[in-house]
Amino acid sequence: MARFAYVNGRYVLHDKATVHVEDRGYQFADGVYEVVPVVGRSMIDEDPHLDRLGRSLDELMIAMPVSRQVLKMIMRELVRRNRLVGGLVYMQITRGVAPRDHQFPAVAPPPALVMTTTAIDLAAQPKFRDGVKVITIPDIRWTRCDIKTVSLLPNCLGKQQAAEAGAYEAWQVDRDGYVTEGTSSNAWIVTDAGKLLTRELSIDILSGVTRRTIFAIAETEGLEYEERPFTVAEARSACEAFASSATSFVTPVVQVDDTMIGDGKPGPLALKLLDWYLDYCAGGRRDKHVGPWTAGEIEPLREIA
Ligand code: PDD
Prior knowledge:
Blueprint: E1 4-7, E2 10-13, H1 24-28, E3 31-39, E4 42-43, H2 46-60, H3 68-81, E5 87-94, E6 112-119, H4 126-130, E7 132-138, H5 153-164, E8 169-173, E9 179-182, E10 186-190, E11 196-198, H6 209-221, E12 225-227, H7 232-237, E13 240-245, E14 249-256, E15 259-260, H8 268-281, H9 286-289, H10 301-304
Parallel strand pairs: 7-8, 7-14, 11-12
Antiparallel strand pairs: 1-2, 1-6, 3-4, 3-5, 5-6, 8-9, 10-11, 10-13, 13-14, 14-15
């Protein structure tokens, strides 16, 4: 079956899809992206992802190339053409094409919009039931990790280090010994008292859409949670841990470096959250938990920068 990509106004065959060599995304990583999960043909948390996309673009002073309505139409059309039942929609917007020069072009070029899909049955990943190992590494990224930029080299290096250590993810650690987040997911632990713990929003981490949905689920289910940094030692001695993202959903962490978490099996709370999240994706709980985000809800981050 032909697979399509969307490139600057056209649906083209995926293996023929190209961008210009002087696209600033290619030369300077001058662009942003979003990954939206698709479960049962439905886009999960589509509006929050598009809210965050808008915010990332604003932070980099790149114009949104099309209206939100048109963006949603393109997403749907690509999902339809690729007959995507489950998987991901990836979209990337860069500042566009200009002769190579670090400063922004004097006359802004049209921003470049690229979209692809990947078919995966996200809801049936073995890692959910088996749990995963994470390693801890120094956080060597820049100081604006709240922007979802395509500049992901430190994340790629960290993920590669994890893979070489037989781990799924690397939890990055700040200079004070506190975990910031994974290279492509948010990091969580569960305290002895059964409280969910994850780092508070700041320029140190990405404001995860899944993270936010987990909070909403926790509220509905009466679970306690706290947003504060935790140390590597706390993570190693936690009774449970997990990672969250558009692709990880709620992935139980059973080992941090050489230390088993709890009894080395996925924790009951993580598994419960995963079930609730899958139920949320299936539409069972969507109304119950989270209304559409307004851009304003993530705006306060801007004040931190
Ligand atoms: N990554 N932190 C980082 C550094 C991330 O790259 C991601 C997502 C998250 C979780 O955000 P969300 O819940 O909105 O997916 C946290 C995506 C999946 C990626 O880069 O492929």
